[in-house]
Amino acid sequence: MNAKKWDKVATATLYTIAGIIVLILASLLVYILVRGLPHVSWHFLTGKSSSYQAGGGIGIQLYNSFFLLVVTLIISIPLSLGAGVYLSEYAKKGRMTNFIRTCIEILSSLPSVVVGLFGYLIFVVQFEYGFSIISGALALTVFNLPQMTRSVEDSLRNVHHTQREAGLALGISRWETVLHVVIPEALPSIVTGIVLASGRIFGEAAALIYTAGQSAPALDWSNWNPLSVTSPISIFRQAETLSVHIWKVNSEGTIPDATQVSAGSAAVLLVVILIFNLSARTIGKKLHSKLTSA
């Protein structure tokens, strides 16, 4: 065979492999949606879950998932942004910087179960937060901080060096250049990384089993005291999330319609994660177009 024929064979092989992977992923998504969406209704999305009777919903679990996501992002975004700015703009090449990057790589490769056990020992037991939203949020911060930090650092590094030189040439300080020039230029990529991390946080289960708890107490929507365990805005109450609920329903099997509840919950979880992933690129493009047109 000549080079052109080998090129065609290699191209066809790569397209075939890519097609098989896409087909497997699409089949999995379609299977989950077709199996679960018929069981999804307004009552299912807003109703209370049941431990022993059929017909329960996922309202509290769905709210807990979004509330835990918000608390986690409030903690994670400032930390990851600060770490990313330091590593990209201020850290000098050396052993210390290499050690920090190595630690980030190690943390990003840890299984979520290990992070959950770490969160249980530190936040639940040592800090005495108990099974609570704050324990789960701190554990998820440890779990997602390496990825978010690396995303912020890469976004800042992709900003061309002439942008920094232009800011310094105007007489503004290095920090002002980073704050008013570099970060706004990298903002679309940073936001995209945050949205993608949000989908990962929303679908996490293993780390939350040991930290946020496996029960979803009824919420008193008239009680807005953040220290009350029945308040919807309390971070010190147990909060079974949607992903943990799916695991619990399948592992315990005490609900007569466990299969339907599990399938419907999985479909809702998948739809929300798909929305996060699909909206990430859209938000990034819109922010980029706004900044370039301004």
From TrEMBL:
Q: Which InterPro entries match?
A: MetI-like, MetI-like_sf, Phosphate_PstA
Question: Which GO terms fall under biological process for this protein?
Answer: phosphate ion transmembrane transport
**Matches recorded under SUPFAM superfamilies:** MetI-like
Q: Where are the transmembrane segments?
A: 12-34, 66-87, 99-123, 261-280
Q: Which GO terms describe its molecular function?
A: phosphate transmembrane transporter activity
**Signal peptide (UniProt feature, chain positions):** none
GO cellular component term of the entry, any: plasma membrane
Q: State one Pfam family annotation.
A: BPD_transp_1
Q: Which family does it belong to?
A: Belongs to the binding-protein-dependent transport system permease family. CysTW subfamily.
Q: What is this protein called?
A: Phosphate transport system permease protein PstA
